[in-house]
Specification:
Layout: E1 26-28, E2 37-42, E3 48-52, E4 61-63
Antiparallel strand pairs: 1-4, 2-3
Bound molecules: zinc ion (2 copies).
One zinc ion binds near residues 20 and 71.
């Protein structure tokens, strides 16, 4: 007496590597474009002055916006 109804198995909860950051969870900082520095002004000779990026604090990267830094989605 088996009245089992065969329901399709849900796909296993496999997380896929983020296509944006390739699993690193990091992305180039959009503010400094991954350089870690931003131009903060110019000196008296007109040469640009650089300072640490305020977006990434000089780390050059920020959390991946696609996977929220997890590296997998
Ligand atoms: Zn930055
Ligand atoms: Zn990502």
């Amino acid at each position: 007496m088996t009245t089992q109804t065969r329901r399709p198995q849900p796909p296993p909860d496999v997380k896929r590597r983020c296509h944006r950051c390739q699993g690193s969870g990091r992305a180039d900082c959009p503010i400094c474009k991954g350089t870690g520095k931003v131009v903060t002004g110019a000196d008296v000779n007109g040469n640009p002055l650089f300072g640490d990026c305020s977006g990434c604090f000089g780390l050059k990267h920020s959390r991946c916006p696609v996977c929220s830094g997890e590296g997998y989605v």
